[in-house]
Amino acid sequence: MTDFETRRKEFGAKLRRLREHHAASGRDVANELGWPQSKVSKLETGKQTPDDSDVIEWCTLLDASEARDDLLAELAELRVQQIEWRRQLRAGHRDKQTQLDQRQQRATRIRAVDITSVTGLVQTPDYARRIFRTQADLLEIPHDTEAAVKARMKRQQILYDTDKQIEILISEAALAHMITMPTELIVQLDRLATLIGMPHVRLGILPLYRQLPHVPVHGYWIVDDYVTIENITAEVEIDDPEQVALYHRLTGRLWTAAADGDDARTVLSRAAEQLAG
């Protein structure tokens, strides 16, 4: 269970205790608010994140206005939760890769947008190795590079799970960043080309000098109903339905400017020629 999931479960327990304190049953709350019984259960067990309006209605029904502001403040923190990298990676990168693998194994839809580097799910070992080493140096965390690379390669097995829908969108600029040696980067480009044509994996490249429908200010992942954003110091998880929908809408618009299929292959070949030259 992630830190976010633990906190959401604790928040649900507070809602349940508030209901019990006011001698109301879950069925009573559902009936009075016009909700399905399952919604009350999911909120109280931490399987669903409430909206602000849910908390307000809950407190109003139970005549618990004194608890409303504190709950709303906690909910705001819960929706956009920052998890510091140094705390997440205090034992190294491998455990984080294993955690990501578990979440993605459960997922049915994965959408990744990367602006500055190749997405971890399709990195070659050499490319991933360089990423892990530089991050460990910057954050001053334990180096477990080879174990982390092995775990990342294991994660990539989901690319062959035909029950999943996977979209990977990368900027052409990211392909030119010298994350590793030119010869190794050429191998990375070839790895991306092998994804083209896979029936359940869609690879797209945002070409240089092509007008974009919106400025992608950072990369992100959408795994089912979660959005994850990585920055230098922390990881941000978003579970608010409206915000998740916004990221889906942005992704759809970015795809309208993307090169895929043979066009993506042309972009990759052009980048490889530049590196070889």
H and E string: HHHHHEHHEHHEHHEEEEHEH
User: Would you state the CATH class of the largest domain?
Assistant: Alpha Beta
State the CATH topology of the largest domain. Answer: Endonuclease, Chain A
Shape: elongated
User: Helix fraction?
Assistant: 40-55%
Strand segment tally? 8
Structural domains: how many: 2
Query: How many helical elements?
Result: 13
The gyration radius over C-alpha positions equals: 22 Å
- What does the largest sheet look like? 8 strands, mixed
Q: Class by helix and strand content?
A: alpha+beta
Strand order of the largest sheet: 1-7-6-5-2-3-4-8
Q: Unreliable segments (pLDDT under 50, ≥5 consecutive)? A: none
- As a percent range, the share of strand residues is 5-15%
Instruction: Give the integer mean of the pLDDT values.
Output: 88
User: What separation lies between the terminal Cα atoms?
Assistant: 48 Å
Judging by the overall fold, what is the CATH architecture of the largest domain? 2-Layer Sandwich
Keywords: Coiled coil
GO molecular function, one term: DNA binding
Organism: Amycolatopsis cihanbeyliensis
Protein name: Helix-turn-helix protein
